[in-house]
Write a structure and sequence with these properties.
The chain has five helices and no strands. With about 170 residues, the protein is mainly α. Helix 1 runs antiparallel to helix 3 and helix 3 runs antiparallel to helix 4. The structure holds protoporphyrin IX containing FE. The site of protoporphyrin IX containing FE has 24 residues, from helix 1, helix 3, helix 4 and helix 5.
Length: about 170
């Protein structure tokens, strides 16, 4: 029996999609509110996360594999010939588009913010951040949070479209 590489792509796509969406929802619902409630120790925790490369260190490759395998599957199934041919294919195409938008927002806006925060956290002196550094970190953190919140809901919508498409059959 020949090795079914398309099935492997499908499994990889679904597995990484679960990790991406699950991680984003977990961060939005549990980690974000807990870090805010913890005040100064929450900021210290986030500085440690930043020094270790930030969430992008893991979520970058995971989201990259989701997008790459998704594009290959989309191409292999030939959906690009008629992206809105039927209800289910239209839902899948909209989901794919939404997924791409989320990825571009993450890489284009989220990643640069995380990198700047990580660089700044590495430069804190032994007494911790100065008040200027604290204010800059808080500003960047608020931007990252707002972006994270919006893209997480877009990610959930992507999954609803990709998984729920067959309800339209
Ligand atoms: C946010 C990113 C994404 C998530 C969370 C996601 C999630 C999923 C899930 C859970 C499935 C399985 C649905 C099922 O078997 O009923 C799926 C299927 C699929 N996804 Fe995605 N996806 C994402 C991005 C993309 C992108 C960007 C593309 C293409 C450009 C794509 C193309 C596909 C295709 C073609 C299938 C169907 C595979 C098949 O026919 O067996 N996905 N996706």
């Amino acid at each position: 029996m020949a090795f079914d590489w398309v099935e492997l792509l499908r499994v990889l796509h679904i597995l990484t999609a679960i990790l991406w969406v699950g991680g984003a929802v977990f961060a939005l619902i549990f980690i974000g509110p807990a870090v805010r409630a913890a005040g100064k120790s929450g900021q210290e925790f986030m500085a440690v996360v930043g020094r270790r490369g930030g969430p992008a260190r893991v979520m970058g490759p995971i989201s990259g594999i989701t997008i790459l395998t998704g594009i290959l599957l989309y191409w292999q199934r030939g959906y690009y010939h008629h992206p809105f041919a039927t209800g289910p294919v239209a839902a899948l195409s909209l989901g794919a588009l939404l997924g791409l938008v989320v990825f571009i927002l993450g890489m284009g806006i989220g990643l640069p913010i995380q990198r700047r925060m990580a660089r700044m956290a590495k430069g804190f002196g032994p007494t911790g951040p100065t008040s200027d550094q604290q204010a800059t970190m808080a500003r960047m953190g608020a931007r990252a949070q707002a972006l994270g919140k919006n893209v997480t809901w877009l990610l959930v919508a992507t999954v609803v479209l990709m998984v729920g498409r067959n309800l339209l059959a």
